[in-house]
Amino acid sequence: MESKKSVLFICLGNICRSPIAEAVFLTLINKRGVAEKWLVDSAALGPWHVGNYPDPRALAVLKDKNIKYSHTVRQIKKDDFRNFDYIFGMDEENMASLKKMAPKDSKATTALLGTYDPEGEKIIEDPYYDSGSQGFYKCYDQCIRSCEGFLNSVD
């Protein structure tokens, strides 16, 4: 039997970008009929929101896009680098943090999720400080393009 591929989406607090990316990815693999071949999760670099739910604006965008999603914030741990095939950060700060914390025996390929965006928008900006929901919708659109691009590259 073929082993599962695994992907972990990371952002600063695991309340905006990484949960949107996780929800989008789960939706895409379900639509493609390959969900049983994947282990998917998201996590935070920092501890601020551990145990909480994603930002209500992120959840509102997902609901608006008819995506059912439930997640409790967790922080990345060293074992994630050993257990996941791919760890995707959203911006250069995320990537610098991931590089610093990766153990020597990391098996994970780390990259910007936006590397796979066919429109070339590599950085997925943090919409947290956006007073409305526009940044969350932009994040969603970038995640759709990037996750589809990634899936197309590994299929």
Which CATH top level class fits? Alpha Beta
- The CATH architecture can be named as 3-Layer(aba) Sandwich
Number of domains: 1
Alpha plus pi helix count: 5
Rg computed from alpha carbons, rounded to a whole number of angstroms: 14 Å
Question: What share of residues are in beta strands?
Answer: 5-15%
Short description:
It is found in: Cytoplasm. The protein is α/β, with parallel strands linked by helices and 155 residues long.
Note the main attributes of this structure.
4-stranded parallel sheet, 155 residues, globular, alpha/beta
What features would you describe in this structure?
A four-stranded parallel beta sheet has the order 2-1-3-4. α1 crosses α5 (134-154). By secondary structure, it is of the alpha/beta class. The mean pLDDT is 96. 39% of the residues lie in helices and 14% in strands. It is globular and about 40 Å long. It has a single domain (5-154), classed as Response regulator (Rossmann fold). It has helices at residues 17-31, 56-64, 78-83, 92-101, 134-154, and strands at 5-11, 38-44, 86-89, 109-112.
